[in-house]
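Dear support,

We are seeing what looks like truncated structure output for some complexes. This example has two components. We would appreciate it if you could run it in full and send us the complete token output so we can diff it against ours.
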Amino acid sequence: VTLLLRKVQHKRWYAATTTLDNPLPADPLADLNTKDNALSLWEIFDDRSNLTQVVTAMAATMQYVSNVDIVLFDKRLVSRLGLQIDMTQGRTPYAPAVAYHRDIVRLTAQALLNLAETLRREGDFVEFTEKQVARLLAQAIASGLRTDELTDKVVKHLSDKGLL
Amino acid sequence: MPESTSSPKPAAPDFLPTLLQTQIQRLARFSDEETFEDGIETELSRGVSYLLERYATPAVQAISDLYLAGLLNPVILSEILPWLGRTQQSDTMDRDSRFWLLVYCLRDPHPFVRSGAALGLAALDDPRAVPYLLREAQTERIPLLRERLINVAEELSL
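Here is the complete output from our reference environment:
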């Protein structure tokens, strides 16, 4: 099953995922901000073999090293909701993952609500800790990611931790 | 008694804790309208990390005093706590004061604060936190937060 990944903050989903019988709280919608009615996502292979590449791609755009919270969900859920996915270039300095970026396009407010409701019931919420993210960035640098593509704070963090 | 040749460390002025509390409250007030995203700097993160690196223990004390007085709202506090672990610690006392504040916050009634405390302990990278994280995980009722507590404990146990 091909998966889709959206970067979120798990704390925004605490109430939503703890009591599924209650109406959907509003906080999760803050994790589904759209631009031009499109929602940015990444496609993940069914064996999740490109998952760390995608997390690295997102981490490479951060201003400081932080944990990365994500939600993964079955790509088929998107068609079930009647939504359309377009292939778009990911904005990240980490080239190996650029091709995995996707957008759900032509979203309506109602569709976004339906997606949030689906995610809280069927999403797989996964956390990459700060330390894991630092290691992924260090590996990416070792395999060619240029440090001048990262912020000084990120590079200093990796250096202070002895990862560079 | 021979006189010590090393110059004594200057004592912090009496007004420093109050000054730092005022600074932190000001940052918190200005951050009311900010959107917080992991990995993205805000005025709050920049300000708090500066104060922690510049003033160390007195800044931790100021955060602690504001917290115990109930003067920091949980959303803001949850954004501040990870920086206790992320910023450079000046000495053992500074490190310990951060550690114990974070451990204390693991029992806060608000889940955002508990979450921020777990992230702070992960960043502080101190294995002493493991039993506290596991103890709180046993009673944590929010599955995603329980998972976070366990993840951090496992990572610190490696």
